[in-house]
Design brief:
Mobile element protein; alpha+beta; RNaseH-like_sf; about 120 residues
């Protein structure tokens, strides 16, 4: 009782650890919890506060072609087990596929070369 009167914010866990580690009692947690409940020391479980979600801003819509481009990497597997990748470059205004690059591997130099071809 004196422990919970001194530390009002301590729940069962901190009381049990204090009794075992600081006071040196050899009681198990079930015994301490039974006494803790009989003395009606259990604290109210506080509900978690929900964070207010901000509404996301709407996406900007491009006003003309070739203002916004999107990259999409896709991967698949052939019938013989070999995997291949495809790089799709799309226009954000009219959703047109500007370029498709397909290969068994797409290193970064190849991706940069493809983007330079689309821009030029």
């Amino acid at each position: 009782m004196t422990l919970t009167n001194a530390e009002k914010t301590w729940g069962f866990g901190l009381c049990f650890l204090h009794l075992c580690n600081v006071k040196g009692f050899g009681w198990d947690h079930k015994r301490v919890y039974r006494i803790y409940r009989e003395l009606e020391l259990n604290m109210r479980i506080k509900p978690k506060k929900r964070l207010q979600c901000e509404k996301p801003e709407p996406l900007a819509v491009p006003e003309a072609p070739n203002q916004v481009r999107s990259l999409d990497f896709m991967a698949d597997q052939l019938a013989d087990g070999r995997s291949f990748r495809a790089l799709n470059v799309l226009d954000g205004f009219n959703r047109e596929g500007l370029h498709i690059e397909v290969g068994f591997s797409l290193p970064s130099e190849r991706v940069v070369r493809t983007l330079n071809q689309v821009i030029a």
